[in-house]
Amino acid sequence: MKKPLVLAVACAVLASPLAASDAPKGDFFAGYSYWKVDEESRNGWQASLAKNFGKLGAVLDVSGHYKNGSDDLTFMAGPRYAFHGAKITPFVQVLAGGVRLKSGIKVLNVSISESETHFAWAAGAGVSFKVSSHWDVRVQGDYLSVSLEGGSEANPRFSGGLAYRF
User: Fold this and answer.
1) Mean of pLDDT over the chain
2) For the CA atoms of 55, 144, 48, 56, what is the dihedral angle to 10 degrees?
3) Beta bridge partner(s), residue 66
4) Contact (Cβ atoms closer than 8 angstroms) between residue 146 and residue 35
5) Annotated domain spans of the chain
6) Is residue 123 a contact partner of residue 94, using CB atoms and an 8 Å limit?
7) Cα–Cα distance between 55 and 51 in angstroms, integer?
8) In terms of C-beta density within 10 A (0-12 exposed, 13-18 middle, 19 or more buried), how is residue 2 classed?
């Protein structure tokens, strides 16, 4: 649990010389997402909308991951601290919200499914690489923790995609 926090702080400290550019008003990110849950790999998507107030911003984040009749939908929000550079923008963020876990099976054309919603939080970091006046290529990773009955489960989540700055 300490490794993601140490990584996020290290990115913030090392990136401070890169902070030379004005922050955009906000951005919209969409891309591929990979979430490792125990020994299962889950593939899916992630999207976020951020509003910037200088280096500090507010983020709304949604993601979906799928594997053999199971799907997970996360919906979280929180602060982001970004070092807006001319070409590279590293950032750290902390998000909190929920995750809906759903699993099901189909037997003789009858679908049976069950879903639960739990508290979730994530802490992580990422970097956006400017490719044009409004577009970035972004990679990010976080440590996503889900509160379950009898404890919590935390696993890494990685994403990559495009961000539109406005």
Assistant:
1) 88
2) -10
3) 43, 71
4) no
5) 2-165
6) yes
7) 10
8) exposed
The mean pLDDT value for 47-54 works out to 96
Q: Specify the fold of 2-165.
A: Porin (2.40.160)
Question: Cα 24–93–83 angle (5° rounding)?
Answer: 40
Ramachandran angles phi, psi of 68, nearest 5°: 40, 65
| Residue 146, number of CB atoms within 10 A of its CB | 20
Residue whose tokens read 């919603």: 117
Which residue from 132, 131, 134, 136 is spatially nearest to 160, judged by alpha carbons?
136
Handedness of CA 154, 94, 100, 106 (dihedral sign): negative
CB under 8 Å to 131, separation ≥6 — which residues? 137
pLDDT at 108 (0 to 100): 84
Per-residue model confidence as pLDDT tens digits over 106-151: 888 888 878 899 999 999 999 999 999 999 999 999 999 999 888 8
Token pair, residue 20, equals: 């030379």
- 117 with 108: CB under 8 angstroms? no
Full-model pTM: 0.80
Angle 2-148-3 from CA coordinates, rounded to 5°: 10
Tens of pLDDT, residues 15-48: 444 444 588 999 999 999 999 887 889 999 999 9
CA 85, 91, 97, 98 dihedral sign is: positive
